[in-house]
Design a protein that fits this description.
By secondary structure, the protein is an alpha/beta fold. The chain has a single domain, classed as Rossmann fold, CATH 3.40.50. 46% of the residues lie in helices and 15% in strands. It has helices at 40-50, 63-72, 89-99, 116-121, 133-145, 148-163, 169-189; strands at 7-9, 32-36, 56-60, 77-81, 104-109, 125-128. It has a 6-stranded mixed beta sheet, sandwiched between helices.
Length: 191
């Protein structure tokens, strides 16, 4: 664990306060986590940190593999290093969140200049290398506790804050419209 690493959370709004939610290390609810990182030591370290906490971990060595895994599994959390050998990490992020608009995400980067786009693209949080695993676990838990309503609110606020600044925000707008439709149908079906 390195105390020099830093995490930046994007404002998440209200976190879910639900007595039926069990923490991962109690083993009642296991969340599926996709770890995408080209470095085998980092992948293995992340797996060794997440699994004992009760997370089901699937590893992907590159962007193509992560997209394939997303066709087979429904993930609750994405831990993505944006520096991938085959596909731009932000393109992978966009594809995976298009497939699952409620996918929570932690973006890992070694270059703080790449951090700005994480806010604009809707990442839940970012962590700078070298990784602080304790901080990563805390961040993962907070993101996974976020309610769907809070996620929609966070993403909508990010869209409103950035829509006047950036070209190409129509893609984000489409994702939010999709997320709202999914959430609306989910709420109707759960009543």
């Amino acid at each position: 664990m390195n105390s020099n690493s830093e995490t930046k959370s994007i404002p998440t709004g209200a976190l879910k306060d639900d007595a039926s939610f069990s923490t991962c290390n109690q083993g009642v609810i296991k969340k599926n986590v996709l770890v995408v990182n080209s470095d085998p030591q980092i992948r293995e370290s992340l797996q060794n940190v997440l699994r004992p906490e009760g997370y089901q971990v699937v590893l992907a060595v590159n962007g193509q593999e992560s997209i394939k895994q997303s066709f087979w599994y429904r993930f609750d959390l994405l831990v993505l290093d944006i520096d991938l050998p085959d596909i731009n990490g932000w393109a992978v992020f966009g594809m995976l969140t298009s497939m699952n608009p409620f996918l929570q995400s932690i973006v890992i980067t070694g270059d703080s200049k790449n951090l700005g786009p994480s806010v604009l693209k809707g990442a839940g949080a970012w962590i700078e290398k070298p990784l602080n695993f304790h901080l990563l676990l805390e961040t993962a838990e907070k993101l996974l506790m976020e309610s769907r309503d809070a996620t929609i609110q966070r993403l909508t606020n990010q869209r409103l804050e950035t829509s006047s600044e950036l070209p190409g925000t129509s893609i984000r707008s489409h994702k939010m419209d999709t997320a709202k439709k999914i959430h609306s149908s989910w709420r109707k079906g759960s009543r």
